[in-house]
């Protein structure tokens, strides 16, 4: 737990409304849209917030600029989901010196100084990758399995951690080999382009491990355009569990999805209120994720909100 020290206890001038600046990654995926909706629909005036929201279009420099502008405006709290893991110490120091507490949502920063943020709310990405790798290792028989990996944004926490978790899970199974691995930047369009390249370079792909549903959906388009059947000729495993991904799973095109929960707005609201009130908060809040096979996806889809 971190304690809300006086330097980090924002003075919101007697007004109970909490002004919060949120620097979002972008709008790269269905997951991100659901995450943005959750934040915007929770940090409302009715709920005691004045939300200032910015979209960094997946560029770290835009995010740093947005954070600097929130510091200049003297907001009560800054929250953000870092595009990449490294390179944040300078701007986070500026926030600290201005006495503005910072909350990380979804993605971590790589820093030696954990006094630079109050709390980090989000999934365990290593565990997500591990669950995907375990499924591949345990469910596809004993013949050699060639995997191609569609990585998320280079240098981002989910790309680094999911790759690591997956590699860990298959390490003891000599039948499973990752034969190629490239970034598709978490988007459907780049997932498709990179998969086209994989299909040209390799005639022996058994499995696609995509770091998110959108890249898996792009890969499905490339596989079908190459005259192959996703789910039969080439199996796909992905992470997120957005509606389009779950639909492809229910249809048998994707074989397994590990969930990454995007609905972080309520936790962020609660932690922001505590931080502003000077109450202690947990330094790390891990969100709960499920995993779905075809039957589970069919059962979950009717109630899936995003
Ligand atoms: O940081 C979470 C990841 O970012 C999601 O898995 C992906 O869809 C998003 O772009």
TrEMBL record:
Q: Which family does it belong to?
A: Belongs to the bacterial solute-binding protein 2 family.
GO MF terms listed in the record are: carbohydrate binding
Source organism of the structure: Xylanimonas ulmi
- InterPro entries, A to Z: Peripla_BP_I, SBP_2_dom
Which superkingdom does the taxonomy of this entry point to? Bacteria
Q: Keyword Signal on this protein?
A: yes
Q: Which UniProt keywords apply?
A: Signal
Task: Give its localization.
Answer: Cell envelope
Full protein name: Monosaccharide ABC transporter substrate-binding protein (CUT2 family)
Q: What is the lineage of its organism?
A: Bacteria, Bacillati, Actinomycetota, Actinomycetes, Micrococcales
List, for all copies, the residue spans of the domain called Periplasmic binding protein. 20-279
What's a GO cellular component annotated to this UniProt protein?
A: cell envelope
Principal localisation: other
């Amino acid at each position: 737990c971190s304690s809300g020290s006086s330097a980090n206890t924002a003075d919101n001038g007697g007004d109970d409304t909490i002004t919060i600046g949120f620097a979002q990654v972008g709008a790269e995926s269905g997951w991100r849209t659901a995450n943005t909706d959750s934040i915007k629909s929770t940090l409302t005036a009715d709920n005691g917030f004045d939300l200032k929201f910015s979209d960094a279009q997946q560029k770290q420099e835009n995010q740093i600029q947005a954070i600097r502008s929130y510091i200049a405006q003297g907001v009560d709290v800054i929250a953000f989901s870092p595009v990449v893991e490294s390179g944040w110490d300078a701007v986070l120091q500026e926030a600290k010196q201005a006495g503005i507490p910072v909350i990380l949502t979804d993605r971590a920063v790589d820093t030696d100084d954990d006094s630079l943020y109050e709390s980090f709310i989000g999934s365990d990405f290593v565990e997500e990758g591990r669950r995907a790798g375990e499924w591949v290792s345990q469910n596809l028989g004993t013949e050699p399995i060639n995997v191609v990996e569609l990585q998320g944004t280079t240098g981002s926490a989910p790309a680094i951690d999911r790759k690591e978790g997956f590699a860990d899970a298959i390490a003891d199974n000599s039948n499973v080999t990752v034969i190629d691995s490239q970034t598709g930047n978490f988007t459907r369009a780049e997932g498709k382009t990179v998969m086209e390249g994989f299909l040209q370079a390799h005639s022996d792909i058994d499995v696609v491990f995509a770091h998110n549903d959108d890249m898996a959906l792009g890969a499905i388009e490339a596989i079908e355009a190459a005259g192959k059947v996703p789910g039969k000729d080439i199996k796909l495993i992905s992470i997120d569990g957005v509606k389009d991904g779950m639909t492809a799973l229910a249809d048998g095109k994707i074989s397994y999805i590990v969930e990454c929960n995007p609905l972080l707005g309520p936790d962020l609201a609660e932690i922001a209120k505590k931080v502003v009130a000077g109450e202690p908060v947990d330094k790390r809040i891990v969100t709960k994720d499920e995993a779905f096979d075809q039957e589970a996806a069919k059962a979950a889809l009717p109630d899936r909100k995003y």
